[in-house]
Design brief:
The structure is a single chain. The chain has helices spanning 2-7, 13-32, 43-55, 78-136, 143-153, 157-165, 170-199, 203-221, 235-249, 268-283, 295-327, 332-360, 365-375, 379-389, 394-419, and strands at 34-35, 38-39, 253-254, 264-265, 285-286, 289-290. The chain is mainly alpha-helical and 421 residues long. A hairpin with a 2-residue loop joins strand 1 and strand 2 (38-39). It is globular, with a radius of gyration of 22 Å.
């Protein structure tokens, strides 16, 4: 063992880098497997990362040559922190790319469908919150565990943070989140693939239905005067969007009388960059300075960001699941309950939201599914939907519904944790 470990000088950042790309390779291979035309896609990366986080936390790994270098000693280890950093970078890259892609068409689409997107985002979160309250009132469960399940079922990190701020036992919030998160990711990813297949929709026709509103805004862009471009790949304006977005996302709004020391709302590293990228992508320039970014660059950032996010979130979820279950005093049955409750909190809002968007809002299929991914705050599902639909235009519906859902779920988590014990 000493000879093998001595032969390979893997350590620190190198180990994390090797682990991340190992997950990427195996995860994509898993995601390519199709069963009756349905595949995990990028969510395969998440599942492998989840398994990686679980296996490489097991103490027995320390006795295996070479693999011992990948051992993650709980959620306080530097390797764990590095994977969280990968997750954050990926999320910022993804939402900034999505915002820029959606920007040129976003405000026109929002103007046409605001009466649909706003209530849809609210309804999805209301259904999830109602289920959370119902589960919390079951004797022996409580708000902390149920609030964690809600944030996991809707894959919402801001809601997770908000729930911890008002919790009596933060460990229960973390346990609920860790248990519900995997199905929260995979469930929505499968939903956006299965629905078009069940409906046997004409995807070419569906794509055309959401391109009609785009033509006029694209034509207007061609009338811009000569602008100055800082670089041909668009890295400079992309970086500017991230900088401003992080600053906007860090602004805190107090939700209680305790001021900034109490529960606060912020757009975070998701909402801030997304909204700023939408605005910069819409206008395309500041004076003579061009802010346009080639679509090829945006697609690379979007896909690369998604994969980094799934790797980081998956490893984090696997490690947290091990540590929280091991530390829990409540036994295996609570884990089983959490998984079932999380699955219900993912599935029911999805179905109610889908039929509301279809029957009441009369949204086209791709606008329907795009807005559902936003309402469920599901980053991986949007990436899958782009692949299924064959168009980036679905990002506009995601971007329109996401901020509404983000605000609602953070407020719901605060209220549930504050008033229900």
């Amino acid at each position: 063992m000493n000879f093998v470990n001595g032969l390979f000088s893997l350590s620190g950042t190198t180990v994390v880098l090797a682990g991340a790309f190992l997950i990427c390779f195996v995860g994509y291979a898993l995601g390519r497997i199709k069963i009756k035309g349905v595949s995990l896609g990028a969510a395969g990366v998440f599942l492998i990362a989840l398994l990686f986080g679980y296996l490489f936390t097991l103490p027995g790994l320390q006795n295996i040559p070479l693999l011992s270098k990948f051992f993650i000693e709980g959620n306080k280890a530097s390797a764990f922190t590095s994977y969280k950093f990968i997750e954050t970078i990926g999320l910022v890259l993804f939402v900034t790319g999505v915002g820029y892609i959606a920007g040129p068409n976003f405000f026109r689409n929002l103007k046409q469908n605001a009466k649909s997107y706003v209530p849809l985002g609210i309804i999805i979160i209301l259904v999830g919150a109602a289920l959370t309250v119902a589960f919390a009132l079951i004797p022996g469960i409580g708000a902390d565990f149920s609030n964690g399940i809600l944030s996991g079922a809707l894959t919402s990190t801001p809601a997770f943070s908000a729930a911890k701020q008002v919790a009596s036992e933060e460990g229960l919030v973390a346990l609920g989140h860790a248990i519900a998160y995997p199905f929260g990711v995979v469930g929505v990813v499968l939903f956006v693939q299965i629905v078009p297949k069940l409906l046997r929709c004409d995807m070419a026709k569906e794509r055309e239905s959401i391109k009609i509103a785009k033509k006029e805004s694209v034509d207007k862009k061609k009338k811009n005067n000569k602008t100055i471009s800082l670089d041909e790949f668009g890295f400079a304006p992309f970086g500017l969007a991230i900088i401003i977005g992080i600053l906007v996302g860090s602004i805190k709004i107090p939700l209680t009388g305790e001021g900034f020391s109490g529960a606060c709302f912020s757009l975070g590293n998701t909402g801030g960059p997304l909204i700023v990228a939408l605005i910069l992508g819409h206008f395309g320039h500041i004076g003579k300075l061009s802010l346009e970014i080639p679509s090829s660059t945006l697609k690379v950032f979007r896909e690369f960001g998604l994969i980094l996010f799934l790797i980081g979130a998956g490893v984090e979820g696997g490690v947290e699941l091990v540590s929280q279950v091991a530390a829990s005093e409540y036994g295996v049955m609570l884990v089983v309950y959490g998984f079932i409750a999380g699955a219900v909190m993912t599935i029911l809002p999805l179905f109610i939201g889908y039929f509301f968007a279809k029957k009441v809002c009369k949204l086209s299929l791709l606008n329907n599914l795009g807005s559902l991914t936003g309402g469920m705050t599901s980053t991986p599902a949007l990436g899958t939907l782009v692949g299924v639909s064959g168009t980036d235009d679905v990002a506009s519906a995601y971007a329109a519904t996401y901020p509404i859902a983000l605000i609602c779920i953070v407020l719901a988590s605060n209220l549930i944790g504050t008033f229900i014990k």
